[in-house]
Each structure stands twice: as structure tokens, then as C-alpha cells.
Amino acid sequence: MGEKRIYQTNTERVRRNGKFIIETLGKGKKGENAVFICDGDCRENALALSDVAYELGLNPIVIDIDTFGRERRFLKMPVMKPLQAAILSCDVAFMLSDQMLTDFGMFLGNSDECDSALLGHSRRFTLEARGLMQWDVDEEKVLRDRERTERLAELLNKGGLLHVTTERGTDFSCEMVKGTDAIYPVMAIIPFYVETAIIPALGAFNGHLVVDGASQCAYAQRGFPIRPGVPGYMETCMEPLEIDIKDGKVTHFAGPEVQMQRLE
Predict the structure, then answer these.
(1) Model confidence over 5-43: pLDDT tens digits?
(2) Is residue 173 part of a domain?
(3) What CATH number is given to the structural domain containing 69?
């Protein structure tokens, strides 16, 4: 290993975090083939995780898409057959590149593969690894959060009316099961992120939404003039976007012009 490898700067912490990611969350086992996909912003983390995977007995390979993808900002990167083949033939894959710029659906040329990967069914993980050598991970809490997310999905799949309100004014309701097309846990953005996703059926959603977080469009655009040094999060300093929905149809919306243009 070269002198600049991240794994040498905080060996025990990187080993501990890497083992938790690969072995506990990714279910990596000795003898399996592992692929780590990276670009220039996360290359050192990919190399570190590859080293840890090798120590655990896996057969790791790092694929760097920076040269081929960055000029196209990854969003427009065409399918690379060698990358596609590596993902499809390996036992477990970890994407370290920014998930707001690319995903497994783009790598494989099939948008359904993005959703499939987020569910964790294919053992293709989106890895948020920027803090690999700084994290002091509470592994028990991470596992509890994952267990709680699965329990919530099970509970919602039993049916009943879901009614959500917030201090900022959001107030909506939707009948679970009868009024949904799907309810499932999103478990493959690791190590910290989990959610229970709910997809309402057409016509089943009613209420008022106050959207005060960053949108995926903001992450992708990367050039919005407010706080451009913090892509995506720059919209949190705006007034929220407010949307009224009746029987699944938008009846009114108001907010910052850039947000309204997306809806129009």
C-alpha cells in the first residue's frame, strides 16, 4: 500500500467501519467477489474498503469511473459494458460515487435496477463513505434503526389510515394497503440511511404538503445561485414549496419560482 492510502491514516477505525459495512450490512463472505465503484472524490475510500474486503477473505476489485464519467457529469454517462458485466457477475457491489449523480440503473441501462438496488435485494449497495476514517459508528443503533424500519413496513402493510401532520403545516392522509401500490423498507443506502417508502395509489392521497427540504432536482442541477457551494442543501434556505392534493391530483401550489417551474 502506498503512503497516501487512507487505510494507513487511521487503521483500526477504518478496519472497524469497513468490516461493519462489508460483513455486517453487505453480508460479504469469504471467497465472494466484491466490486467497489468510485470516482476521484471517493477513490481513497474505495481503496481502503477493498483492502478491508481482502483481509476478510473476499476477492475485491475497484472500478474508477472518474475519467469516463466526469466530463458527462455521470448523469449522461452511457452504459459501460465492462462495468455492467462486473456488477452482474459479482456477489456484492458497493457504489461510492454520489448517488445524486448516478446509480445502478444507469450503470446497467435499466432504470428498474435503481429501485431494486435500493431495496437491497440484489446486494448492490449505495455507500455514503465520505467519513470513513472519522466515523465512530454506533453499530447497535444502526442495526436497531434497520430493524425498526422493517417493523414499520410490516405494520403499515396491515392496513389502516395513515395521517401525518407537522409543525410547519403539512397535513395529509392516505389509506394503507387499500390506497397504496407499494410499501417497502429502503435498506441499501448504507451505513446510516433507512426509510419506509410508501407509494400511494392513483387518487388515494389527500392533503397539504409543506416541502422545506432539498429536492433531488437541486442536487442534479448543481448550479442554483443560492449557496452554490452546498449543492442540494441550497434550497433549505428558501421559503417552502406548498402543495395541495385532492384525490391524488394537485389542485394548487405556491413557493419559490425555481420550485414552481419544476411542477409546471
Answers:
(1) 555 566 888 899 999 999 999 999 999 999 999 988 888
(2) no
(3) 3.40.1830.10
